Amino acid sequence: MFPSVSAPEVSSESGHDVRTGLDAASLSQAVCDYLYYFQGRHPATASRNDFYLATAYAVRDRLFQRGVQSLDALLHRPDGRTVAYLSAEFLMGPQLAANLVNLGIHDAMREALWRMDIRLEDMIEHEVEPGLGNGGLGRLAACYLDSLATLEIPAIGYGIRYEFGIFSQQIRDGWQVELTDKWLHLGYPWELARPERAVAVRFGGYTEPYTDEDGRYRVRWIPGEIVKGVPHDTPILGYRVKTCNLLRLWRAEAVQTFDFSAFNIGDYARAVEEQVTSETISKVLYPNDASPQGKALRLKQQYFFVACAIQDMLRAHLRFGGRPETFHKRWAAQLNDTHPTVAVPELMRLLLDDHGLEWEEAWDVTQKTFGYTNHTLLPEALETWPIDLFGALLPRHLEIVFEINRRLCDGIRRVYPGDEDRVRRMSLIEEQGRRSLRMANLACVGSHAINGVAALHTELLKSQVLSDWVAMFPERFCNVTNGVTPRRFVVVANPGLSGLLDRTTGDDWPVHLDALRRLEPHAEDAEFRRRWREVKRENKRQLAAVIRDRTGIAVDPDSLFDIQVKRIHEYKRQHLNVLHILTLYRRLKQNPDLDVVPRTFVFGGKAAPGYHVAKLIIKLITATGDLVNDDPDVRGRLKVVFFPNFSVKNGEMIYPAADLSEQISTAGQEASGTGNMKFSLNGALTIGTLDGANIEIRDEVGADNFFLFGLTADEVRSAKAGGYHPRGVYEQNEELRAVVDLIASGALAGGDAALFRSLVDGLLWHDPFMVLADYQSYVDCQTRVAALWRDPDAWSRMSILNVARMGKFSSDRSIRDYCERVWHVGPLGVPTEGAP
Ligand code: CRA
């Protein structure tokens, strides 16, 4: 049954290096060895999961081999700087295919498995991804780890190993239903637990002053609770390089897992109580995208992983001979939004209380260590913590925060005497209502660099949310536009396109994305355009099969695939998309012979479980599908699909199959967006507003190759300031009125006029995201899209130019920008100009 590999052999006898060899024979032997000796399975009886695990372990060996070498290289550069990317979320996506591509052994592994009658595709399909993030912010962190390793910059991603990641989404009766995400249930082979590297994290209790041997006034923290943080390491290999970095995620455990005294007196429940409460910390990811919940457990999570990370960094620094006061020369730490900001008082605490530094020196080290990236302007997303809650959990940190604030406010008063309003605005403490700690202000004061994630976003940050900070610390601000990794989102996700790009431009584009410019002349080549369309058509055929399988809806691969996948949020305006669909539907009902471009509308994305309007929008989408899909007058020309459980893995199927990418947020609301980049890089044309990175994408691909509509951020502001009356827009636009009335009538809800009432009323009376204001512009723009679609050559030309001009949006470019503008580090951590 397994002719070529019957039993494991010792590597020296077989002539293959089973641990590290990259040829098919070595790989096949390695997989077989894992089956026998690690899982205790014979290939003949092994399950698909057994084979998957064995394959993953064989790959992991090769990663860790490079990881050890990378660490060794770092040890020989004790003057180098390592990047610590602190993030509450890492949305890594499936690991097998990406690692095979980065190692350059995709074909060898296919051959190795084939010798055992196993299809590599089945192994890749079998993998369950760790959903340890909500959306863009977490996926960005993962792209950045990929680029850091590819650019050979020593880096560690620090985060939380949530036992349950983002919920998995099912659609029942058209509604979202959330199921727990048990990503660990069949074993996660990519990580290595390092219990010997565990650290202790303290919570609660009180502080007390004392005088040390030198007669100095000091403070000690007597905690009320201690929890253990156990690191779990996932190797992060760069693309075709030796550098292998680390993602180190922390799991919370009880210090003492079993209370024998409680057990002895017969209280079984109490005996494991400590374990239960400790482990709660890393149990579950909060499923909110860009809007915090303000729960005590969330603050505990934040402090937990940050305390683990900083201790880990400091320990490494001291072990390699560093002194506390040179910490910033070894580490550049990035705060991925405000979630890890408690790192600022934590580092201060360690330097002051544990290492005896003076305040000024500790503060200097701290500021030089941290950089802060802001990811959103949404006012509800600005994190604050009630002072009483913060103080109860972190009493010593609160004292340090008060002292940072005292010095900050003194500084403001020196620069702006008498401007108490400014002091109030910049203070770390919000005094109105329940006194609370403003994390964005703490991040700003504690960092030497502050950046937004796209040009417009940074401008708005500077002119609105953080304008006081710009006035006082202008040199701290810079922009770093987001990027995405072309390895995962093209090489892995779109092998058809990848092959065509290799053959046309050479194969260096995955690491020099600007090289895709070489495609430009081919846009004029009719034969090339035909091949371009063939690739897209095959991707669409595959997606159509999956859609059929998961939703039962049959869609035509020759129709225009018009796709919006991202978190469901009012500002992203999935409902604007629905208004357009219903507009087309009504036109067809009025004139079934109308010549419309056949379209397949695909939606995907999760709604935060507590966000009722977002959940109602999902229902609106599925109800629209129910209305439209089988209507005889429509004759299959419009199909509406809600693709359940959007994830990195599903995204890898969806982006390559898109013709049109919907990036239709209200201008000024989407900080950057990164889905916009993934689509365009896969040859979709964008219909979008002047928002986030859309603006820069349009600048790069050319205004002629981008479907622009809608109000600008400035226009949105003045429209609102001038008193926006959505009801008036509705009354004056006949087609819009008819469509809104259709939703309000209950026709999409089996006659239940109440179902979408709140949504409709919200649009008519408030419409904070200007859906009605942008409706006509959007529908007109969609008419231009349809006209272009009728000219396949013109469409393909634009599609090719989009891909050719996306070089800027490689996450490699973003990481180079961070290295230059924020971290001052080069490959192998060599300090560059401006390094502290
Ligand atoms: N929700 C922004 O909204 C941006 C990503 C990554 C977001 C996106 O426009 O592309 O960050 N903001 O920068 C966020 O999470 C806390 O704020 C996002 O993913």
Automatic annotation (TrEMBL):
Spell out the CDD domains in the cross-references. GT35_Glycogen_Phosphorylase
This enzyme catalyses: [(1->4)-alpha-D-glucosyl](n) + phosphate = [(1->4)-alpha-D-glucosyl](n-1) + alpha-D-glucose 1-phosphate
- One Pfam family it belongs to: Phosphorylase
**Could you tell me the keywords of this UniProt record?**
Carbohydrate metabolism, Glycosyltransferase, Pyridoxal phosphate, Transferase
Q: The organism's lineage?
A: Bacteria, Pseudomonadati, Pseudomonadota, Alphaproteobacteria, Hyphomicrobiales
Described function:
Phosphorylase is an important allosteric enzyme in carbohydrate metabolism. Enzymes from different sources differ in their regulatory mechanisms and in their natural substrates. However, all known phosphorylases share catalytic and structural properties. Allosteric enzyme that catalyzes the rate-limiting step in glycogen catabolism, the phosphorolytic cleavage of glycogen to produce glucose-1-phosphate, and plays a central role in maintaining cellular and organismal glucose homeostasis.
Q: Which cofactor does this sequence's record say it needs?
A: pyridoxal 5'-phosphate
Q: What family is this protein classified in? A: Belongs to the glycogen phosphorylase family.
Q: Which Gene3D superfamilies match?
A: Glycogen Phosphorylase B
Q: What is its EC number?
A: 2.4.1.1
Q: What is this protein called?
A: Alpha-1,4 glucan phosphorylase
> NCBIfam families from the entry?
P_ylase
Lineage: superkingdom: Bacteria
